């Protein structure tokens, strides 16, 4: 199991500094909720999706899209139930299949869900977790919160791996003829192993000097070449959606 | 340099040290050899401040380093004076990337960015980790994690380094390299080990054991003599033919392929085979295939000529993993042993063979004792074959031999994976080695 | 200094428990009695609440569920999961006091988990305009089963872990 969704690449978006990327993600997410026209909904859905395809390639972007398709399909199936009092658009045998307002409601939800999801995936797939945390630090996230987040990201794959080891060794000790692995002892063993680590980890933090400095300096991240241009693009691309709003 | 007199008892009243006194000279390289459960890890933790810490317990006494009592200092303030490499590397890893891991203590020292980069690069180079700089720590092998922990302490560079079983899991070439690094290091080094290794020779100024009230002169363990009955020719025969094993690691950005081919491997009941090979050469991966936890790419594993499915292999081959805690799940020793379904008499016998105490709590046992319990459990399960994965590393030779003879004596076939090149001279058995992605008999 | 010590312990406690919640959510799936799979997310969340009290539960439960969404490829639900599972752990931790777990108390805790989780997702997803009401209703039965099973399993887990690791209660803050 891997706690990092990062896909190695060298697209223009990969080369962006993480700070403008974070702002861009935030803008995409916020603007997705501000769309008022059909064109706006379509643009808010498609623009970050297109960026995703450019940045991580067809295969990975397609996987993100596939993951949401079932939900979109269910939403579309529920269209007949929406805004039944509205202007009928399609009818069959006197039954109103969809109203104009109903279709609008569903389309707006799909657009928001999609836009939100693509914008976040765009960030998670093109920036390493450490980078994202460093970027959040630059925006004044408290040091202890950043430290805790880094540690969560270290412990997730560790515990995931530990669980598969525990499951394996359980299966080696099973009695003749039994299949699989016993669920409750396995999760208990995993939890005990995790809890045991708490005092050890706290001690490890201190032995490595955590708490020596009253306040950890927030070191500035060096600015890459074209940093101002990245900021400009990072803001303009999502903001351009407001034109078709 | 270091002058200590201390007493410590755990929260539940177990006393480990009572007026324990010792002194270590400036720049001295000291090797402390003592069996598991004698308090090596406890001593290391007391000196760096991990104990009493959060686990409770009562500590009295002092430990002066250049005139300052480190025991009275908060743990975080001791790091320039004294630091340790823990025996269990997993519990000391805090971050996802190798570079961040080394950077964290250096940042806490308040070092400038340039100085930190210089120290990180030097430490990575010293322990051969240059190409892992941005790799995820969860993808490192046991030996690589050990080297990372060593890299951290040498980057921080405290005046006293405590190395708790740091030769463990390292391949012979890295053991030699670590011995060289210790010898050339300017500061004081205190290394703990459960037995003397060939690679220790020449690296240390003094060797001691642990007594009741201080270090005692080290008396070399006479290597135990083992008398084994010859394997019976009609015993069960575990064989592997033309095995091809592949694994793919997804490492940040680059794919590392791993493949191992085993043209022929054969082990008989009551027979001992010794498997040697570098870190990451695939010894554990091969074990996982033999015991049915991993599927091979090609070839077959058979028992007496009959091909074995993964499920059959799990009933045939016991695998004693490197980290014993991964195979222990229940509260007490007795609970663990009962779970095997063995008779009360067999359990009593196993308790005495492996020197275990039925009431002991598993999570409170030392690493070495947990290994003995692991051995006792699989002994009770009576699988016809067993694989010891670096079982010798945290045990004295006596205990290791004890476990091995118990298995062999009951007629089980044994495959012993080890980095210790002395093992073949103690334990008679056929030698096998993995080299260049291929297993061959020596 | 005592204060600083607590900080190192709190950070470790929250980080490790959040990771436990995330792993339970992502890795362990058991077949559901009403079809499909349920995750053990709520078992870990209620374990955190029982073992470490409302505040650790709030942060670890919320953070763990959110990380599971972020890493698992459904980042759009991360914020909602954070709120729902955070509040679930907070309320359960406030109600269940250790050493006085009784059957009625367990039932109340399970009811709270069920109401917070199924109601929370229903309310928040429609409130944020991320789904239509009828689809959100469709998710309710699954959430009810998952959170009820979770609340009970969390307690079983708590008593099991406590038996094997006697220092568990010392870690509370």
Question: Brief description of this entry?
Answer:
Chain A has helices spanning 12-15, 18-32, 38-77, 100-126, 129-138, 143-173, 183-207, 227-239; strands at 88-92, 95-99.
3D architecture notes:
Chain A is mostly helical. Chain A has helices spanning 12-15, 18-32, 38-77, 100-126, 129-138, 143-173, 183-207, 227-239, and strands spanning 88-92, 95-99. Chain B is α/β, with parallel strands linked by helices and 442 residues long. Chain B folds into 2 domains: 2-217, Rossmann fold (3-Layer(aba) Sandwich), CATH 3.40.50; 270-294 and 314-441, P-loop containing nucleotide triphosphate hydrolases (Rossmann fold). Chain B contains 12 helices and 20 strands. Chain B starts with a strand and ends with a strand. Chain C is built from 5 helices and 2 strands, in the order αββαααα. In chain C, α2 (41-72) runs antiparallel to α3, α3 (78-95) runs antiparallel to α4 (103-127) and α4 runs antiparallel to α5 (133-164). Classes of the chains: A mainly alpha (245), B alpha/beta (442), C mainly alpha (173). Chains in contact: A-B, A-C, B-C.
Q: How would you describe this structure in keywords?
A:
heterotrimer, A: 245 residues, mainly alpha, 2 domains, two-stranded antiparallel sheet, 8 helices, 4% strand, C: 173 residues, Arp2/3 complex 21 kDa subunit ARPC3, 5 helices, 2 strands, 76% helix, globular
Approximately how much beta-strand content do the residues of chain B carry?
25-35%
Please list the strands of the largest sheet of chain C in the order they lie side by side.
1-2
Terminus-to-terminus distance of chain C: 16 Å
The number of distinct β-strands of chain B equals: 20
What is the strand and helix layout of this fold?
The complex is a heterotrimer of chains A (245), B (442) and C (173).
Chain A (H helix, E strand, L loop, with lengths): L11 H4 L2 H15 L5 H40 L10 E5 L2 E5 H27 L2 H10 L4 H31 L9 H25 L19 H13 L6
Antiparallel strand pairs in A: 1-2
Helix pairs in contact in A: 2-4, 2-8, 3-4, 5-6, 6-7
Chain B lengths: L1 E8 L5 E10 L4 E5 L6 H9 L9 E8 L2 E2 L12 E4 L12 H11 L4 H14 L15 H15 L3 E5 L7 H13 L3 E6 L12 E5 L4 E3 L19 E15 L2 E15 L3 E6 L5 H8 L7 E6 L2 E2 L2 H7 E4 L12 H6 L5 H10 L13 H15 L3 E5 L7 H13 L3 E5 L5 H4 L3 E6 L2 E4 L1
Parallel strand pairs in B: 3-8, 3-9, 6-7, 7-8, 13-18, 13-19, 16-17, 17-18
Antiparallel strand pairs in B: 1-2, 1-4, 4-5, 9-10, 11-12, 11-14, 14-15, 19-20
Chain C lengths: L1 H25 L2 E3 L5 E3 L1 H32 L5 H18 L7 H25 L5 H32 L9
Antiparallel strand pairs in C: 1-2
């Amino acid at each position: 199991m891997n706690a990092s969704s990062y896909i190695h690449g060298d697209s223009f978006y990969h080369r962006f500094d993480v700070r403008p990327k974070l702002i861009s993600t935030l803008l995409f997410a916020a603007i997705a909720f501000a769309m008022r026209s059909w064109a706006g909904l379509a643009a808010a859905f498609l623009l970050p999706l297109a960026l995703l395809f450019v940045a991580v390639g067809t295969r990975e972007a397609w996987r993100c899209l596939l993951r949401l398709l079932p939900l979109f399909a269910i939403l579309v199936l529920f269209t007949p139930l929406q805004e039944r009092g509205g202007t009928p658009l399609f009818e069959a045998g006197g039954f109103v299949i969809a109203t104009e307002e109903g279709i609008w409601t569903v389309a707006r939800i799909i657009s928001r869900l999609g836009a939100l999801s693509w914008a976040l995936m765009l960030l998670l797939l093109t920036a390493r977790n450490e980078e994202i945390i460093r970027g959040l630090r630059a925006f004044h996230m408290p040091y202890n919160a950043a430290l805790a987040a880094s540690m969560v990201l270290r412990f997730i794959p560790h515990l995931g791996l530990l669980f598969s080891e525990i499951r394996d060794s359980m299966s080696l000790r099973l009695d003749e003829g039994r299949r699989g692995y016993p669920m409750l002892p396995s999760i208990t063993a995993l939890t005990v192993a995790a809890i045991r680590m708490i005092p050890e980890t706290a001690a490890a933090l201190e032995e490595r000097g955590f708490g020596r400095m009253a306040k950890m300096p927030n070191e500035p991240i060096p600015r890459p070449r074209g940093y101002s241009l990245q900021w400009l693009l990072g803001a303009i691309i999502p903001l351009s959606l407001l034109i078709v709003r | 340099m270091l002058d200590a007199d201390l007493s410590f008892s755990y929260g539940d009243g177990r006393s480990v040290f009572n007026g324990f006194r010792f002194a270590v000279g400036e720049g001295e390289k000291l090797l402390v050899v003592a069996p598991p459960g004698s308090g090596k890890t406890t001593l290391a933790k007391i000196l760096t401040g991990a104990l009493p810490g959060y686990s409770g317990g009562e500590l009295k006494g002092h430990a002066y380093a250049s005139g300052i009592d480190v025991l009275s200092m908060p743990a975080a303030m001791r790091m320039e004076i004294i630091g340790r490499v823990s025996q269990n590397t997993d519990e000391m890893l805090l971050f996802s990337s190798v570079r961040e891991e080394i950077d964290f203590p250096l940042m806490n020292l308040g070092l400038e960015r340039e100085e930190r980069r210089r120290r990180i690069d030097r430490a990575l180079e010293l322990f051969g980790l240059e190409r892992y700089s941005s790799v995820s720590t969860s993808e490192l092998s046991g030996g690589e994690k050990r080297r990372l922990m060593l890299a951290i302490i040498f980057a921080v560079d405290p005046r006293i380094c405590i190395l708790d079983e740091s030769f463990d899991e390292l391949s012979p070439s890295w053991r030699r390299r670590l011995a060289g690094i210790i010898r050339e290091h300017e500061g004081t080094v205190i290394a703990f080990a459960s037995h003397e290794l060939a690679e220790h020779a020449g690296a240390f100024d003094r060797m001691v054991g642990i007594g009741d009230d201080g270090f005692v002169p080290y008396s070399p363990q006479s290597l135990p003599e083992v008398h084994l009955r010859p394997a019976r020719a009609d015993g069960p025969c575990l064989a592997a033919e033309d095995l091809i094993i592949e694994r793919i690691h997804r490492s940040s950005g680059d794919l590392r392929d791993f493949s191992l081919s085993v043209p022929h491997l054969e082990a008989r009941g009551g027979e001992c085979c010794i498997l040697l090979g570098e870190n990451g050469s695939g010894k554990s991966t091969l074990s996982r295939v033999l015991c049915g936890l991993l599927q091979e790419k090609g070839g077959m594993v058979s028992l007496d000529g009959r091909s074995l499915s993964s499920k059959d292999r799990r009933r045939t081959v016991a695998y004693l993993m490197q980290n014993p805690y991964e195979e222990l799940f229940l509260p007490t020793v007795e609970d663990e042993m009962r779970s095997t379904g063995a008779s009360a008499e067999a359990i009593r016998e196993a308790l005495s063979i492996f020197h275990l105490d039925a009431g002991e709590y598993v999570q409170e046992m030392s690493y070495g004792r947990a290994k003995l319990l692991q051995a006792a459990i699989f002994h009770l399960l009576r699988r016809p074959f067993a694989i010891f994965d670096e079982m010798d590393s945290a045990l004295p030779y006596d205990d290791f031999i004890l476990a091995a003879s118990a298995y062999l004596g009951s007629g089980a076939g044994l495959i012993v994976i080890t980095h210790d090149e002395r093992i073949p001279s103690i334990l008679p058995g056929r030698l096998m080695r993995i080299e260049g992605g291929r297993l061959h008999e020596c | 200094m005592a204060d600083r010590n607590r900080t190192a312990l709190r950070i470790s406690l929250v980080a490790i428990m959040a990771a436990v919640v995330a792993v339970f959510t992502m890795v362990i799936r058991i077949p559901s009695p009403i079809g499909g799979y349920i995750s053990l997310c709520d078992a870990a969340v209620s374990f955190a609440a029982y073992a470490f009290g409302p505040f650790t539960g709030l942060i670890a439960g919320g953070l763990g569920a959110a990380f599971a969404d972020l890493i698992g490829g459904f980042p759009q639900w991360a914020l909602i999961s954070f709120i729902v599972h955070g509040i679930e752990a907070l309320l359960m931790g406030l109600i269940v006091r250790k050493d006085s777990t009784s059957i009625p108390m367990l039932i109340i805790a399970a009811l709270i988990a069920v109401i917070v989780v199924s109601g929370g997702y229903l309310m928040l997803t429609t409130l944020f305009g991320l789904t239509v009401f009828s689809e959100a209703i469709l998710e309710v039965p699954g959430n009810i089963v998952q959170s009820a099973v979770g609340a009970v399993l969390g307690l079983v887990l708590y008593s099991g872990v406590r038996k094997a690791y006697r220092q568990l209660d010392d870690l509370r803050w």
